[in-house]
Amino acid sequence: MFSNTPFFTLALAAISPLVASTPTYRRDGSSSKNSSEGLSFEFPLSPKIMLISLFAPEDVWTQSLGLTNNITLPGLSPLFPSIGCNDDASICHMTTGESEINAACSTSAMLLANEFDLTSTYFLIGGIAGINPYMGTTGSVGFARYAVQVALGYEIDARQIPSNWTTGYWLFGSSQPGEPAKTIYGTEVYELNTNLREKVMKYTEGIKLNDTEEAASYRSKYDYSPANQPPHVFKGDVSTSDVYFAGNLLDEAFGNITSLWTNGTGQYALTAEEDNAIFEAMVRAHLAKKMDFSRVVLMRTASDFDRGYGGSDAVTAFQAEQYGFEIAIANIQIAYTPIIEGILNDWESTFSSGISPQDQWLYNADIFHNLVQRKREVKEFDKMIKRAQRGNLRR
Ligand SMILES: *[C@@H]1O[C@H](CO)[C@@H](O)[C@H](O)[C@H]1NC(C)=O
Ligand SMILES: *[C@@H]1O[C@H](CO)[C@@H](O)[C@H](O)[C@H]1NC(C)=O
Ligand SMILES: *[C@@H]1O[C@H](CO)[C@@H](O)[C@H](O)[C@H]1NC(C)=O
Ligand SMILES: *[C@@H]1O[C@H](CO)[C@@H](O)[C@H](O)[C@H]1NC(C)=O
Ligand SMILES: *[C@@H]1O[C@H](CO)[C@@H](O)[C@H](O)[C@H]1NC(C)=O
Ligand SMILES: *[C@@H]1O[C@H](CO)[C@@H](O)[C@H](O)[C@H]1NC(C)=O
C-alpha cells in the first residue's frame, strides 16, 4: 500500500540509517536553559502538517515518516514529552495523552510554544473511536464536521430518573431531557471547515481499507447496514466524553444531545475522549494568532461498536472481543497517508493560502462565535447565549 509511492520511498530512506542518538532540542521548564544536540533546525519551526495522536498505539507516524527529531517542551504529557519532526520539519507529530484534561493541556503547550510558528500548519487529528452502527462499522473512517461534548450536563442515576424521562442526562439550565441548555460554558460544540473536509476526503478516494476475517465475523452479528458491511470512509460527527459510555440507551441520549447542540445538523457517529478539549485549546490559540482554526481535520477510525447487536446484553457486547482495534489503527495510516501526500504535493496551488470555510459556519467554529463576526442568522442564538451567560453569573 505504501511502499510503491515516491513519498514513502523517501520517508523510509530517511529513517533507514537508524538513529543511534536522537537529535533533540529541550526547553527546560525548571531552569532558563535550553539544550540542543544534533539538531540542524532553525527555530521557529513551521511544519506544513502537525499530526496529532491521543495515545501510543495511534502513533503510526514516528517510524514510518522518520519523525525522529525530538522537540521536548514543558507542558506536554509526561508520557509523551516531545514532538517529533522529520529532517526538514515539514511534518511533525505529537501525542496528547488520553481524555479531555490531557488533550487540552498538551495541545496548549504545543500551540503556545515559541519554538513553533503554526500559523499556516494543517492539523490532522487521527485517533480510534467507538462507532454508531447506524453510521459505520469497525474499521470505518469518519471525517467530522462537529465535535460535541455530550456529557457536559446534569446526570442522575438511571434508577432514580422520573418515570417519564428517557435518560438520566439533561443539559445545564434546562429542566428535563430534550430541552436545549440555558447555561453555556463555551466548550460544548465546535464546527470545523467543511470545505477543507471535502478537499482532504477526495484524496482518500479509491483507498483500500484494512480489514480482517475476525472483524468481519463479529460485525456479521448485526442484522443491518452499514454495521455488517465492510469498513468505508464516511462523514460523521464525534462526541467527546471522559466517561467511556456504551449501550443503545446512552448512545441515543447522546445522539439527541448532538442534535440539540447542532440544531439538527449534526449526526452522532463516533465517540472519543479528547476532541472538544483539543478544539478549545485551538480556538484560544487562534485568538492569540498562533494558528488558523480553519486548517484542522478531525478523522476518527472505528475500533469498537458503541452498542451491541440485536438481543445482545449491553455489558457483554461492550466487553466482547470485536477485533476492531488493529484495523482501526491500520486505517489511520491508510486514510491519512494520501492526505499527507496531497497537502504536500498541492501545497503551493491549494493549501499554502488556506481553504475558505463554509459561509454558514453555524457556530462560527465555537459556540461563542469568537472567530468571526456574528452573522444575522445566528442573532437569535446569540441572544440565547447572552441569557445563558447571565445565568452563569447567577450560579
Ligand atoms: C524521541 O521521541 C520518541 C517518540 O516519542 C521516543 O521514543 C524517544 O525515546 C525520544 N528520544 C529522546 C532521546 O528523547
Ligand atoms: C529557549 O527557547 C525559547 C523558545 O525559543 C526562548 O524563548 C528562550 O529565550 C530560550 N531560552 C534560552 C535560555 O535560550
Ligand atoms: C414528565 O412529567 C412531568 C409531570 O407531569 C411533566 O411536567 C414533564 O413535562 C414530563 N416530562 C417529560 C419528558 O415528558
Ligand atoms: C491489515 O493489517 C494487518 C496488520 O498490519 C495485516 O497483517 C493485514 O495483512 C492487513 N490486511 C489487509 C487486508 O490489508
Ligand atoms: C431521543 O429523542 C427522541 C425524539 O425526541 C425520543 O423519542 C427518544 O426517547 C430519545 N432517546 C433517549 C434515550 O433519550
Ligand atoms: C435551526 O434550525 C431551524 C429549522 O431548520 C432554522 O429555522 C433555524 O434558523 C436554525 N437556527 C440556527 C441558529 O441556525
TrEMBL record:
Keywords on record: Signal
Signal peptide: 1-21
Domain of life: Eukaryota
GO biological process, one term: transmembrane transport
Keyword Signal: yes
GO cellular component: a single term: endoplasmic reticulum
InterPro entries linked: Pur_nuclsid_perm
Coiled-coil parts of chain: none
PANTHER family linked: PURINE NUCLEOSIDE PERMEASE C285.05-RELATED
Protein name, per record: Purine nucleoside permease
Source taxonomy: Eukaryota, Fungi, Dikarya, Basidiomycota, Agaricomycotina
